Amino acid sequence: MTMTLAVTMRDDSVTLDTLRANGSVPAVIYGPKQEPTKIQLDEKAFDKARKDAGEATIIALSGLDKPVEVLIKEVDFNPVKQRVTHVDFYAVDKDMTITAHVPLHFIGEAPVEDSRAGTVTKVHHEVEVSCKPADLPSHIDVDLSVLKEVSDKIHVSDLKLPAGVTIELEAEESVAVVSAAKQTPAGEESMEPIDMSAIEVEKKGKEEAVEEA
Fold first, then answer.
1. Exposure pattern of 69-82 as b/e (b: 16+ CB <10 Å)?
2. Cα–Cα distance, 183 to 190 (Å, whole number)
3. Does the structure show a pLDDT above 80 at 54?
4. Rounded to whole angstroms, how far apart are CA atoms 206 and 138?
5. In the prediction, which pLDDT does 133 show?
6. CA atoms within 13 A on the CB side of 87
7. Are the C-beta atoms of 39 and 8 separated by less than 8 Å?
8. What is the mean pLDDT of residues 13-24?
9. Is 19 helix (H, G, I), strand (E, B) or coil?
10. Alpha helices in the chain (DSSP H)
């Protein structure tokens, strides 16, 4: 999926504070085949695009000499006003493999929770993938309806991926797991907490970055 965002070249004679006061956001585009280019764009339009696109959607920047396809790499915010102050766009090359963080969408109901036999713990909420820009998915579905027993897990290898997409995690990595319910002395059910240290969780932290493979 590709969306379009209008931008203009940035006028260096205008201060950044003036630019922001007028409702624009300063930004820069760069990439393996893109010279660093200073641009500006409408703050409200970018906010909407960021919420709709995240970092897993190709954005076509219009208004330049030629359209440039990018991913949102980094967004700086004013810590007090929580407004965007600067954006880094990474210009992708359609022929080169990229990496990006893609959100997981948990769908369906877990029968093990309906029966109150256990509760589901979501270990990952996003995964890093490698693919060509045209193959980049906006999200990956995780079907919880397969979790029927306390011992059930969903592994990376269980996820259905679009053609050309690879997840940068081990195939046996857990995405969602079930912990058992136990009876309290009063006969009420409580969920036994799962030992998260026993689950190998990737600890890279979210980088709003895309790297050339």
1. bbbbbebeeeeeee
2. 6
3. no
4. 16
5. 92
6. 28
7. yes
8. 95
9. helix
10. 16-21, 43-53, 111-114
Residue ranges of domains in the chain, CATH in brackets: 2-91 (2.40.240.10), 98-212 (2.170.120.20)
Q: What is the pLDDT of residues 58-82, one digit of tens each?
A: 999 999 998 899 999 999 999 898 8
Rounded to whole angstroms, how far apart are CA atoms 110 and 122?
A: 12
Q: What is the pTM of this model?
A: 0.72
**From CA 90, how far away is CA 211, in angstroms rounded?**
9
In the Cβ-directed half-sphere of 207, how many Cα atoms lie within 13 Å?
A: 11
Rounded to 5 degrees, φ, ψ at 149 are: -125, 160
Q: Within 10 Å of residue 32's Cβ, how many Cβ atoms?
A: 11
pLDDT tens-digit series, residues 128-155: 999 999 999 989 999 999 999 998 999 9
Least confident among 154-158, 162-166, 201-205: 201-205
